[in-house]
Amino acid sequence: VPKLRADYAPPAYAIKKVHLDFALGADETTVTADLAVEPWDAGARTGDARADLVLDGEELTLDALSIDGTPLEPSAYSHGPTSLTIRGAALPAGAFTLRTVVRTKPRLNTALSGLYYSGRMLCTQCEAEGFRRITFFLDRPDVMAVYSVRMAGPQAAMPVLLSNGNLLKAGVDEARDGPGSHFAEWADPFPKPSYLFALVAGALQHISSSYVTRSGRTVTLNIYSEPESVDALEYAMGALKRSMRWDEEVFGLEYDLDLFNIVAVSDFNMGAMENKGLNVFNTACVLARPWSATDADYERVEGVVAHEYFHNWTGNRVTCRDWFQLTLKEGLTVYRDQAFSADMSSEAVKRISDVRMLRARQFAEDASPLAHPIRPESYVAMDNFYTATVYEKGAEVIRMYAALLGKAGFRKGMDLYFKRHDGAAVTCDDFRKAMADANGRDLAQFEGWYTQPGTPTVHATWAHDAGARTFSLTLRQVPPAAAGASAPPLHVPVAFALLRADGSGEALGERVLELTEREATFTLNDVEGEVVPSILRGFSAPVHLVAQRTDAELAFLMAHETDAFNRWEAANALMTRVLLGAADAGARREPLGEVPAVLLDACRATLVERAADRSLQALALALPDFDTLSSSVEVVHPQPLCAAIGWLKKGLAAALKPELLSVYAQCAADDAATAAYSPDAESIGRRRLRDACLSYLSALDEADTTALCMQQLKGARCMTDALAAFSAASRVSGPARLEASAIFADKVKDDPLALDKWYRTRAAADVPSALSEVRELMSLPSFSLTNPNRVRAVVGAFTALNHKTFHKEDGSGYAFTAQCVIDLDKINPQVAARLARSFSAWRRLEPASGALMKAQLEQLQRTPGLSRNTLEIVNTSLQ
Ligand code: ARG
Ligand code: ZN
């Protein structure tokens, strides 16, 4: 039965205080919970009719149950598979303390939700609904309580005992806890929802530092990991301090406890988790050392550390009333981490990378049966809604407030939001109202961004009247099919400028046009000379922009746009046009011909320019990806689309080989001239451009280009060097491919995260034997379905990156993936459900592939015992 947003009602009872006592064991843990319960709204209570107290609880063995010290009669309660109901008649009239004693089995918890065992530690993951797998509770975010924790466990196996907040006391009490045990007591003074609870116990090591906040509070910072990774924590520590400083400077927000702990965990369903004072991270999002992390990993670590830290205000101090409001904290926090990363490196590079990701993942989701508004209307399994739409489109929606209100206006809105709602569980409407009220604006129409699914299209046409010296821009918005043709128009900020047609800069500086009607014409006066419009600068709204531009105009914009995003966009649009044309030709079985000269010339110009920012150069040369291209056409022909991408890559490489070789050599020489590895923007740009060249060159599959790959691999000084070379070598047809694989495997065999990169590259390799190679990978001793990172590295990479084999005409790629979903679902429903999303594309595939994919969905639907997570994805995909 789905939960509906419209059905929100507060619970009958509040829980204001929680004391948890853990007797920890990897095989069995006993949890004694004392809950201070009271009627939700004591003032509004009338008479004696007391509501039942219905607590959530899953996979718990109930050992004892009492109220104010008196055990409950069996007739006073009932215990079902997902709940514990205490009859109203058995409850005292006012406040009372409920004690439950339960047992859980952490080692058997392969779903990695609740309390589980990973590596050599016990740890927790509670968001969204994991706390109910630890103890009985009103497991919903509007129930906020002050928590204290006593945890005891074997000193030898669990020397480190961590929970939220401040450490009150630690010691040994063998009389109470048993021989060899020790204990710790923690207290978190801030009321919080249960999803922010955390506990970690294990043989961890850590690094320590401190940070003095703006108002003078000294905060101890610790980052913990398993002993063999403790040398890979320094970068995250620096990122944490930069985040703390940035949030003070940009938003005036300070940290509020004396201690901030981070723990790195190897088995983790997602990236990381913002538990109050005790963030828990997937090792992949926190460990970084030159030999195991790439430049992109360093950037991700910095971004995720910032994201989780920023949640302390946007998520923890102000939290969500119910899970439909998830984007309230996630969209806002992604926006904040994006702004932070932009400030730490390059705004343009960050923006372009984020939009590429948005289009590849979120636009694709919007174009599928899984499309949903950033604030969903219903869900079956909440864990299925940690989506690109809630996160990335949610961040775009926040960015639009900033576009409409300006930086200062946005800050005013944030200040009012915290002033009004600190310590409360609130809604997206509350946020919108704070933004509106702080700026004296009416943002009623803006709600459409929260209610409509799908990506809107904005058509732009223009006319220049030289005599009257006016320029008029007409914008027309068309709602996406997912929202329905009659969906009301949205409030769309369109950043706009006029460029001089001679390439000498702007005739009219940037301004934000507000499109609120279905169609509107904006007329600009006193326009001198020939001009070219610059539209949707910085990608100011998450829409498909349709502006009919000739190839020559796009080439002009590539050279003369004053907005860095739009300059990149012009290159991207030109490549997209050529690729979609070639894919069409391929689908009609026509020859693909030659790469158009205008594109060759434009790419050559990009390549040879001595750009200030080599990352921008590399991005301008990056081909549009399969998923973005797929979401921009009506019918996807996977094989012709793959062929078109391969054709363009090879065609560009062949025509530009001399330039590619020389830019490669220049970047490689500059890199060799540097001493130690550094993940600063300039060094990253140099390696990024070098590796973009190598990737193109490897497409030629010639002896000298393959030799270059092998040379870079053998001479690699860091993981970025090695992985780029290994990936490039994985595209060649000769024996070098497996030779490179062996060299890389040897480098990474003792490092799980680096080994994941080997698995991922092998699983993504576009070779005829790909499917049998993937099966082989899964039979290796180091492969395991219980580790989400490894599963994503192999099966996830196969479905997301190996388009040719995943979409193989005989359906074998789909059948293989469906079997993986079934096997995985028994172990970890969250990860299985995510994998099942790869089938949601079926409706837009050409009929033969679509039917094969649909058949796998139907087979999954018939599979007995499928989890509700996976079943929800399957059912929605088939709808
Ligand atoms: N709140 C976490 C973050 O964004 C992610 C939690 C994801 N939970 C889940 N069940 N998928 O940092
Ligand atoms: Zn988050």
Automatic annotation (TrEMBL):
Keyword ATP-binding: no
Record domain Peptidase M1 alanyl aminopeptidase C-terminal: where: 551-878
Domain Peptidase M1 membrane alanine aminopeptidase: 235-446
GO BP annotations listed: proteolysis
Keywords: Aminopeptidase, Hydrolase, Metal-binding, Metalloprotease, Protease, Signal, Zinc
Coiled coil (UniProt feature): none
Domain Peptidase M1 alanyl aminopeptidase Ig-like fold: from-to ranges: 454-546
Family named by the database record: Belongs to the peptidase M1 family.
Matching NCBIfam families: pepN_proteo
Name of the protein: Aminopeptidase N
Organism field: Diacronema lutheri (Unicellular marine alga)
